Amino acid sequence: MEETIEIYLGDWLYNAGIVGFLKIFEFNNSSSDIIRGDNFISFNRDMLADFQEKYFSFVYQKANTIKDKAEKLKNLLSSEATTEKIKEYIKSITISKTMKNDAVISEILIETKKSKDWRGIANKLIEALPSHWDRNKDLYSKYYLQGFYEGKSIFNANVKSKIKELFHRDFIKPLFSDDKQKKKVHYCKVCNKRIAQKDTFFDEGAFKLTGASANEFKNFYWNLIPNTHLCSLCELIYLCSFAGFSNLRAIGDYRRYLFVNLDTAVDDIYKINNAVENFILPSRKNPYKAIIHNMLLNFQQKRSRWSLGNILFVEFATESEPYRIQHFHVPAYIAKLFEGDNYKDFEQLDGFYYKERKEDKESINVLQKTIDCLLGGISLYGFLNKIMRDMISGKHNRSNGLFNMVKIQKSLDIYKIRRDDMKEKATKKLWSLYYEGQDISKELKRTGAENKIDSIAYKMLSSLRVRDSKSFYDTMLRLYMNLGRKVPATLLETFSPDSVLDPEALGYAFLTGLLGKEYSEHTEKGGNSNE
């Protein structure tokens, strides 16, 4: 029997089990002895000897709705709710058989037939509910787990007692039996490594929403013989999947759960699901959008392009509704924007907020809005045009960070047509145009024509907004003629047959320089002035 066990990543449900397994050990402060490889975890078999204790201590904190009910009663009393409202709530929470079969609770409920003092009854329940939980926590935990599993062992509807002991007998003890003594064996269909248990299959016992009953749907199998055999260890991993799911109660849905699967590493899957449960859902953000933002801004390795293109969201309900699988694909040319030096352009936008109207209470996070545009296939130039026109009208301070949006959009256009070889040349051209815009701004200020900057920029922005390149160049040429300056070759770039810039990229690069701060300030703040 192997003493060191290795569990490898598999399907999304198995991966949820691995995440749940790690969470259970972490909750019990005993995860330090589990080694996390790139696509596996490993640990000593002896760590599972008392796993039922760790398992149920985790389940208790998930299944304890009694604490919430006691808290709700306290709130009703402190908020001076009507007696009728208190009465209705008490009746709703004491309707279950578990409540009625509890002698202490039952005695309190008898009073409801004699007394009309519902506030007094509420106080007695508040005092009695914690001990009621202690007496019945294994049973409540079983009901909680039945939302995910059914049929076998403790998940059988008739099982009412010795739940933890049964779990140990049926799921932990087999982990320490000698499988090699069996005469006729099947190997586990999941790990293809360990010997499967007799009559143990991947069915509703492993996860009830799969609906793959080996007994009731034998016609699903070749020759009507179920062959989805499971070893005791893989079965246990599936039984940990509940702990890998994030409940959507924070955004108002108590029955639904979410899991995010990636084709990368154990740590990546663990961290993103941990972020979903502890940060993203409690913040009440759209979980799908926030998850993509989180991944785009934190996965800087080259493998991110693969992982972003293979995100799997699994959302399901534990009551009546079918589960729903959503596949979110991020194209490689977008994922590439977050690799290497490209990532610096997004960092420059971090902390930049924008209000569409001064009276708006909440500001728009420019970084998040930029990512939203990219994922939605919307050009950044429209958003950039709006911000710059608002800058001119005095709604916002001038910022050099906007130039990074031009670089991002141009990089995207290049990656989209798979002409990565154009990237370096295009970036140098954009920087040249940015500095040219700043030089013109300085020249206008030097000649006392600073008040013309905004009107010239507004006219150019209006032309770019409707993609009127003729009008844009007319304004540009008049500006240079009035200043007595020669139009640099870079500004005429788009007229060249081998141009790497389009009129919009050229125009916005120039205008971000014209309306931005001095580039000496930009350099001090971390901008790249060496291009």
Main sheet: which strands, in order across? 4-5-6-7
Structural class of the secondary elements? alpha+beta
Total domain modules: 4
Helix fraction by DSSP (H/I, runs of at least 4): 40-55%
DSSP summary: helix tally: 23
How can the largest sheet be summarized?
Answer: 4 strands, antiparallel
What is the CA-CA span between the terminal residues?
61 Å
Instruction: Report the β-strand fraction as a percent range.
Output: 5-15%
Give the overall form.
elongated
Could you tell me the mean pLDDT? Answer: 83
Instruction: Tell me the total number of β-strands.
Output: 9
Low-confidence stretches: 519-531
Rg, rounded, reads 32 Å
General description of the model:
The protein has 531 residues and is an alpha+beta fold. The chain has four domains: 4-48 and 148-242, no CATH class; 66-145; 245-330, no CATH class; 373-524, no CATH class. 51% of the residues lie in helices and 7% in strands. It has 23 helices and nine strands. It has helices at 12-27, 51-63, 66-78, 83-93, 97-100, 103-114, 118-145, 163-172, 232-238, 241-244, 266-280, 287-298, 304-308, 332-335, 342-347, 366-375, 380-392, 402-416, 423-446, 452-465, 469-483, 503-515, 519-524; strands spanning 4-8, 35-36, 40-44, 246-247, 256-261, 311-317, 324-328, 353-354, 364-365. Strands 4-5-6-7 form a four-stranded antiparallel beta sheet. A three-stranded antiparallel beta sheet has the order 1-3-2, with no helix packed on it. Strands 8-9 form a two-stranded antiparallel ribbon. Strand 6 and strand 7 form a beta hairpin. Helix 11 (266-280) crosses helix 12 and helix 17 (380-392) runs parallel beside helix 22 (503-515). The protein is elongated and about 95 Å long.
